[in-house]
Amino acid sequence: MKYGRYLKENQRPEWKRFYLDYSGLKDLIKECADNNSLSSFTPRVTSLSVQRPDLKDLAPEEKFYKCLDDELSKIGDFTGKQMATLRERLNKLMDDSEAYLSKAGGSKGIDKESAAHRALMEAAKKIGDEYLAMEKYVNLNYMGFHKILKKHDKNCPNNAIKPFYISRLHQQPWVQGNFSDVLVSLSSIYSLLRGDASGQKNEDSAQGFVRSTTKYWVRTSDVSLVKHFILQHLPVFQFDKNNFSGDAQLINSVYFDNSNLELYHGRLDKRPGAIALRLRWYGNGEPEQVFVERKTHKESWKGEESVKERFIIPEEKVMPFLKGGWTLEMAQQELRDAGKNEKEIAKFSELFREVHQAVDAKQLTPMVRTQYMRTAFQIPFDATVRVSLDTNMCMIKENPDDGPTCLDSDRWYRDPNIAPTRTEITRFPHAILEIKLSLPDGEQPPQWVQELLASGYLTEVHKFSKFIHGTATLLPDMVQAVPYWIDDESLRPSIQACAPDVPASATNTPQPRVLGPQVDEAGPSQTAGIAMPQAGGASGEQAVIPNKPRRKPRDDGDLRHPLLGSTPTLQLIHGRPPQVGAQGGSRENPGLTQFFTQLLTCCGLCAAADVPAAAGPAHDKPRKIPMRIEPKTYFANERTFLNWIHMSIVVGTIASALLGLSGQAEGGAEGQLNWSVALISMVMLPVAIMIAVYALYTFYWRMAMIRRREVSFFDDKYGPLVLAGVIVFALSIIFVVSLIDFVQMLS
User: Do the beta carbons of residue 82 and residue 179 sit within 8 Å?
Assistant: First the structure.
């Protein structure tokens, strides 16, 4: 779709005159292109003492520059006025909410069914919708400036201005401005109206976490919408309000591994007891307090839960701790001096000792860093339901390719004075949403969580790991296997952007790669997107507008990542899945017309590519990422198949025995009885055959769905009902025939 048309279709009617005049600027570009004579070009007037000529007397280039400046000012003024109005409405709503809460006698007296409460909630929702509309307005105009500048430089290559104006665009207040304070204020209002109560703060220096966590990818264009939905149910969590501004906090995590990437491969293969070790700090600037964290993988299908443990040490103690100079006895004494009790010290000591032993025995060193902005949604110190959203995520090599390593520099993280090169940094194109639940056994997630999962804005990526993705992308020559999501089409531009330069002749040879056990083999996608920063500028979030496939930044002959083949094997579907309830899947019953094709495909008698694709456009399919298959899934399918076969064998054996024992009598009562027995067996045998065929069909159908990792229902609504009806019908025939024979025998 052309951007001009896209702009017209997506702009807000009442704001029409405040959008970028894209068509007018295009017309000026045509005039500039037609006026190729250098003599007609008038240099720009830069001195304030010189009176500028009228617009009608200006050369086309000067007209274009002036209109571009006017558009920048127009959009900046409108954005500033609208955001000021939103903040005024927020302040008034906050005062009204506090007055309502005071009148109600505190949070316990809130009546959520009252007209006053409903009016306040509706006002808060309207402000949130206005904020989203304002963000879309900024995104559309930002994208428009990029488009129009690109078009200008393409048509007027002798007067390229894009680098200058892009730099100027990024300095505009409406691009640089951080508007996250609106979401924080809105979150506080919702929290007041809900009557949220804080839990109790845990001051333990070593903290154990046992939670169920699910990770999702979120389109950058949907980030603010997802934020707005979540904050209506959970407040934005600010752990330290004195050192925390806005709705997001910068997080740096340095992951440790050895030269064999032992920890990486252990986490990738999901080996029992596999650990990930990282040092994390929060906020901008140099770290002061460092969280030493260890994640241990446990097999969920065995009923075990993975565990994350951590303790805090001062930054100046990190290197002595890693080298063994800061001993456990020293750390224990410092904790006693700080007033910690013996129970807390014991927890700290156990983790301290185990982490140091792992670093020493495995020769672990800093390997990869992840850096992102995290927005956490949680009732303070209540971990029942917690949601975190990570945006602007990038992964960085901790050891420069052409510089001293961390070990040589006696550092535990990369020297900030050494800027990462193109091959030492990769930027992840999506936001990462984690939903963490800590619920009593058997309790279902809240309804709003189920609605969010079914909304279509989230794509579940089973066991996604920032550490695994960063290591696989930045250290392709060291890894022996890669995660299944690495070849997703939406990730290819970001992965290729950090690929090393290779000779053009080398690209003709297929690049070998080893895929992990979770790799799916879906067809290549035909969709792509164009990314841009969202409102707030400094946050750097992105929005995606469907468009024609983007050009690659460099020719494949010059840039080819070792992990990527010529075509993607996964795809993220652009579009919204149907609203089908909490599970987010669509219930489809298998058709008998596909049975033999699926059967042959599963048996290896025909290629999977020969199976016709489902009819309909690609955007009608739900967005999905294949999940890791547990062995118990295959076993459950086999058990179901054996149960059906057992029933078929029992019915078939009885029918065969009756048929064999029917005898050879030719007449009389015994002959009539033998005829009845033969009829009964002839009715039961087809039923046994039908059960066996159905069991075989459902077995291969489910096995194909499991292999394709389809996010759908595996049950068959109609098959068992049809079989039950056939059995009832057969038994009815047997009963009628037996009743007739019994009556005839009595007569």
Answer: no
| Total number of domains in the chain | 3
Q: Is residue 665 part of a domain?
A: yes
List, as one string, the DSSP characters of 348-389: HHHHHHHHHHHHHHHT-EEEEEEEEEEEEE--TT--SEEEEE
Helix, coil or strand: residue 287: coil
pLDDT band for position 146 (cuts 50, 70, 90): very high
AA letter at 158: N
Inter-residue contact 493 to 552 (CB < 8 Å): yes
Report the amino acid identity of residue 418: I
Q: From CA 657, how far away is CA 264, in angstroms rounded? A: 61
184 lies in the same domain as 271:
no
CA terminus-to-terminus distance, the chain: 85
3-class secondary structure for 332-355? Answer: HHHHHHCCCCHHHHHHHHHHHHHH
Residues 149 and 219 in one domain: no
Query: Tens digits of per-residue pLDDT, 380-401?
Result: 777 788 999 999 999 999 999 8
Please report the pLDDT score of residue 36 as a whole number: 54
Single out the residue in 193, 218, 248 at which a domain terminates: 193
**What percentage of the chain reaches a pLDDT higher than 70?**
74
Of 642, 630, 639, nearest to 709 by C-alpha is: 630
Q: What is the dihedral of CA 128, 134, 138, 141, to 10 degrees?
A: 140
DSSP letters, 459-504, are EE-TT--HHHHHHHHH-TTT-S-B-GGGGBGGGHHHHHHTPPB--G
Q: Are residues 456 and 376 in the same domain?
A: yes
3-state DSSP assignment of residue 241: helix
